[in-house]
UniProtKB/TrEMBL annotation:
Chief location bin: membrane
Topology with respect to the bilayer: Peripheral membrane protein
Name this protein carries in UniProt: Sulfate ABC transporter ATP-binding protein
InterPro entries attached to this UniProt entry: AAA+_ATPase, ABC_SmlMolc_Importer, ABC_transporter-like_ATP-bd, ABC_transporter-like_CS, Mo/tungstate-bd_C_term_dom, P-loop_NTPase, Sulph_transpt1, Transp-assoc_OB_typ1
Subcellular location, record wording: Cell inner membrane
Length: 334
């Protein structure tokens, strides 16, 4: 079951926001729509929700054709970037709201509300008002409110976008655990590749209204299907394929070579094979060090772990050798 999107296109005037999207979101999975601003992520999410109508194509939710079904009849839970809690209701009343307007018996409302307060780990804060909560707590309440009515599908549009980096990171881990408990089919929009990697079972990479690739976080990172995906889901050096530092065992193809910074190795002069390079900048990033190197006409960026970096004793303008453990080739550049 889950969500099946078939040949969905959507125009805003002359602008094509979605181009023949085909996507299968398996039942009970958490899928991230990842892409740069304007790539069509929110439009696709809003189309699944019924807040936008596709111009062509169809959307099936749990076996039902919902393409033209009213938004209220889709039984979808929605969480937006900006907390849409009712200010004049307490946390408990906010969570209970959807159940009460559905005329759920009071005993059931109470049970469900307490269960959800436990699930979002805010048991002690049920009587507070939204303005007495932190941003992260408010988003947890928004999620509980969306889950209260047992939606068939949960849609989240940059739910942690307005929060600071530390809280975002905590909430990602929390959402992952929560999803493992509730297993509702969920689609999550983000432009943050780290967030998508950490939270999702599958990532859908979007660009200019099209899907570039669908895969697990590991598949997307290790086997990017296009230069766009390779560049979007992590840093990358793009070099002409004839450049020397490409590993000998790599099958050199036409086009450009894509090398991740952590795939580069630095070797002291005389200590092995490699392409001569000059150290131009060293930046300490905490758990790793970024070294920018000049190789004739090109610059490359290497990321070294502390263990790799310290024994090298690198200094600015030092001559070194550089080589790559890996490279991928694409015929066109992103
Ligand atoms: N109601 C609308 N009318 C006209 N153009 C729109 C409308 N909604 C979206 N668009 C355009 O469609 C494109 C895709 O927008 P969308 O919001 O889906 O992108 P996104 O990938 O979610 O970007 P962001 O991360 O910035 O939210 C954008 O160029 C946007 O300007």
């Amino acid at each position: 079951m889950g969500i099946i999107i078939q040949q969905v296109s959507k125009n805003f005037g002359d602008f094509q926001a979605l181009r023949e999207i085909n996507l299968d979101v398996k039942d009970g999975t958490l899928v991230a729509l990842l892409g740069p601003s304007g790539s069509g992520k929110s439009t696709l999410l809003r189309t699944i929700a019924g807040l936008e109508q596709p111009d062509r194509g169809s959307i099936w939710i749990n076996g039902q054709d919902t393409t033209y079904l009213d938004v209220r009849d889709r039984n979808i839970g929605f969480v937006f970037q900006h907390y849409a809690l009712f200010k004049h209701l307490t946390v408990r009343q906010n969570i209970a709201f959807g159940l009460e307007i559905r005329k759920t018996p009071p005993k059931l409302v109470k049970e469900k509300t307490e269960e959800l307060l436990g699930l979002i780990q805010l048991e002690g804060l049920g009587n507070r008002y939204p303005n007495q909560l932190s941003g992260g707590q408010r988003q947890r309440v928004a999620l509980a409110r969306a889950l209260a009515v047992s939606p068939q599908v949960l849609l989240l549009d940059e739910p942690f976008g307005a929060l600071d980096a530390k809280v975002r990171k905590e909430l990602r881990a929390w959402l992952r655990r929560l999803h493992q408990e509730v297993h509702v089919t969920s689609v999550f929009v983000t432009h943050d590749q780290e967030e998508a990697m950490e939270v999702a079972d599958y990532i859908v990479v979007m660009n200019e209204g099209k899907i570039e690739q669908v895969g697990t976080p590991t598949e997307i990172y290790d086997h990017p299907a296009t230069p766009f995906v390779m560049s979007f889901v992590g840093e990358v050096n793009v070099l002409p394929s004839h450049v020397d530092l490409i590993p000998r065992n790599a099958k050199v193809r036409e086009g450009a070579a894509f090398i991740r910074p952590h795939e580069l190795e630095i070797v002291p002069l005389g200590a092995g094979e490699g392409t001569p390079a000059i150290v131009r900048h060293i930046t300490h990033l905490g758990w790793e060090t970024q070294v920018e190197l000049e190789l004739g006409d090109f610059e490359v960026t290497a990321h070294l772990s502390r263990e790799q970096f310290l024994p090298l004793n690198l200094t600015l303008n030092q001559k070194v050798l550089v080589r790559s453990r890996n490279a991928r080739f694409f015929s066109q550049v992103a």
